[in-house]
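Sequence design from tokenized structure. All designs in this work follow the same two-part layout: the structure record, then the generated sequence. An example of the structure record is given first.
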């Protein structure tokens, strides 16, 4: 009996020792093997993103967080500070042009949801930046803590580095090609309080007729699972549609559908002021001067 208990305890010790070794291995992977990263890793990253910095050390600095080596090495802090503001300008300009009906609050929520640090961290993984990152978690027992923030800031630093090393035009091009082409989730961020009051106020503001809800179709009214389809009309124009297990639910969804269709309306063909024109080609002289 005693020998069985001893064998069980030995087995448990071996199991937990294996778990500890696995966690240590995960820790190294989470930090991207920060102690020994080959220079070819950074050159491959440049090639993958079609970037050629004037100095090979720039990409290494982009991928170096201030937590690495307790901040003794050059980090991406200043690049990230610049890149954050460059991104805010280009992304904000893009969203304002693409969704002209959105309120400022909605645009801010949209920018945060689709271009915040969590979203940019996924972009960094897509770029292949994780194996090149040099950083250290503040929680030694949990090496992944802080990884999302570090990766998100690395993309901001990358934009800042391009802006500083190659100029505004190159930074605009990079943001337009790699970030502004990503699909954005509109409905997830268009949250509305008091949607009925908002729709009534919106139609008044736009000089439209007061919204009227109409039952379009129904099935199973006297069963345990009825379905009501409700249309929301302004005059003869249907501006929204919703369904539900009750008329009230169908009306509510039709109201929200009408609001989302209005605020999420996209302009397909537009030009951004910062992405068009050439300053050197603009002149206010009526005739060219010799």
């Amino acid at each position: 009996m005693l020998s069985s208990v001893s064998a069980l305890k030995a087995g448990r010790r071996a199991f937990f020792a294996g778990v500890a070794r696995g966690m240590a291995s995960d820790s190294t992977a989470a930090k991207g093997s920060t102690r020994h990263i080959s220079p070819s890793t950074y050159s491959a990253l440049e090639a993958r993103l079609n970037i050629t910095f004037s100095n090979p050390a720039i990409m290494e600095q982009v991928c170096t967080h201030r937590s690495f080596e307790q901040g003794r090495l050059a980090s991406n802090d200043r690049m990230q500070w610049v890149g954050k503001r460059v991104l805010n300008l280009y992304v904000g300009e893009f969203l304002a042009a693409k969704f002209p009906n959105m309120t400022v609050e909605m645009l801010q929520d949209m920018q945060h949801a689709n271009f915040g640090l969590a979203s940019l961290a996924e972009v960094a993984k897509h770029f292949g930046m994780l194996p090149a990152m040099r950083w250290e978690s503040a929680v030694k027992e949990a090496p992944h803590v802080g990884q999302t923030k570090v990766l998100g800031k690395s993309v901001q630093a990358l934009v800042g580095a391009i802006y500083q090393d190659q100029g505004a035009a190159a930074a605009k091009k990079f943001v337009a090609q790699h970030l502004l082409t990503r699909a954005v989730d509109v409905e997830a961020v268009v949250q509305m309080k008091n949607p009925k009051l908002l729709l009534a106020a919106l139609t008044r503001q736009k000089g439209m007729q007061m919204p009227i809800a109409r039952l379009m179709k129904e099935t199973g009214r006297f069963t345990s699972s009825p379905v009501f389809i409700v249309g929301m009309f302004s005059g003869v124009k249907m501006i929204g549609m919703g369904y539900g297990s009750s008329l009230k639910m169908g009306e509510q969804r039709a109201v929200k559908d009408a609001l989302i269709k209005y605020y999420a309306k996209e302009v397909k063909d537009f030009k951004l002021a910062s992405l068009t024109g050439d300053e050197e080609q603009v002149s206010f002289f009526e005739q060219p001067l010799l």
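Confidence is low (pLDDT under 50) at residues 14-34. We note this feature because it recurs in several other targets discussed in the main text.
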